[in-house]
Amino acid sequence: MTTDTAGKISLGLERITDFLRYRLPRDPRLGLRVVHVAGTNGKGSVCALISQALISAGYKTGTFNSPHFLEPNDAIRIQGVAIPASDYRDLRVWINDLDAKTASEHGRLSLFEQATAAALWWFAESKVDVAVIEVGMGGLRDATNVFGVSLVQCICAIDEDHVGMIGDTIEEIAQEKAGIIRPGSWVVLGTQGRSAAFHRVRQIAQKLSPARIRKRRGSHAAIAPPTPTTDVDLPLVLAGHYQAANAGIAFYALDVLRTHYGFDLLTDAAIQVGFQNVRWPGRLAWLRLRPAGDGLAHWLLADGAHNEPAAAELRKYVDTALRRFAQQRHILAGTAARTLNEPPPVRWIVGFTRGKDVAAILRQLVCPADVVWAVPFAQPDEMPWITCCDPGDIAHQVSAAFPDTPVTEFVSPIAAVEQLRVEQSADYLTVLCGSLYLVADLYRTLDIRPFDSAPV
Fold this sequence. Notes:
Elements: E1 2-3, E2 9-10, H1 14-23, E3 34-38, H2 43-56, E4 61-64, E5 76-78, E6 81-82, H3 85-101, H4 111-125, E7 130-134, E8 152-155, H5 170-177, E9 186-189, H6 195-205, E10 213-216, E11 220-223, E12 232-235, H7 243-260, H8 268-277, E13 285-289, E14 298-302, H9 308-333, E15 346-350, H10 358-365, E16 371-374, H11 391-401, E17 407-409, H12 413-423, E18 429-433, H13 436-445
Parallel strand pairs: 3-7, 3-8, 4-7, 8-9, 14-18, 15-16, 15-18, 16-17
Antiparallel strand pairs: 1-2, 4-5, 5-6, 10-11, 11-12, 13-14
């Protein structure tokens, strides 16, 4: 993947493949064992679950996610800890200089291709036992799709995202994401809400055997893959009922590793410990805001939901949380302005990447009596193709779609957070969403740095 002078994304493997094969001192792909994960929603959670289970089992595990969260270096982690910022900077300078000196007929590497090369080199030099790699965009022509062989390919839920860049229809998008499938390898296909996506991936893979998932007791998933493995109860500490499907994908991928590739330390107990200790920041995360003065702390929910399917899942979770929130507010206030059958409204703090169908996403979120605060987010490092919607544009779309919904514009997420601290209102449940880049701004504002140390 690269960007042209206009900042548009152009997918392709010629540059990155040439660089890895001919211009580095040695090809970092040689001997690197890889689990490759694609999809529209859930792939980050699946990577986190697989990685933490491998770490808990005693395997030295590298993880590469896209996009990065707070800083570019946190996309590259070993044992859950980001590559040190100084090492990352040195590595990127070396790769950039090498690319400049030995430019090929295919042109210079893009920033994402440089980051991918850095991740693979770091993993190879660190001699990881296995690398869990998340696709950046699509799959077939993504810079991570440079492996002739990978141990397992996981394909999470597919929906219409990046339309026009990786395909114009759900079938074309599914075909692009299925491009990571390797002949004679193992494919784990997650539950698909779009039958056309399932059938296209199945057609490409020719023979799939996706994990069967059934929820049990609301907080566990019982996974019954078509292998000799018996059913296993798995703890789901990542919030959201859809995480059962992600746990199913992760478990089956891990089962393939231990059954067919000699990862014998991946016992059921090790997987359970890994799933129990997993962390994946910025997804249905409850964060505490200190008040501006005396008073109670304000809690808000932050989630990176940035498309219609993710927004629909967020709304389901919020509806569940509202019932609990109403009870808590009743206890704290001593009296209730509404009955327990009438939960409080939601204050939505939203920011979006330009090009998103803002109105369609908001229709999944906003209900009568809700309010909307529109904010921008900071320009993400090393991602010049990303620009945020102007809060005024968001406010205009809110007013057009929801004429009775109050909407307020803020100059920054920090300004919105400071307003929350001043208000200390228990009349609303506050949810920040619309972009992972916006969630990252919030984490930086609160000085929360989840990848500076290993999970406990």
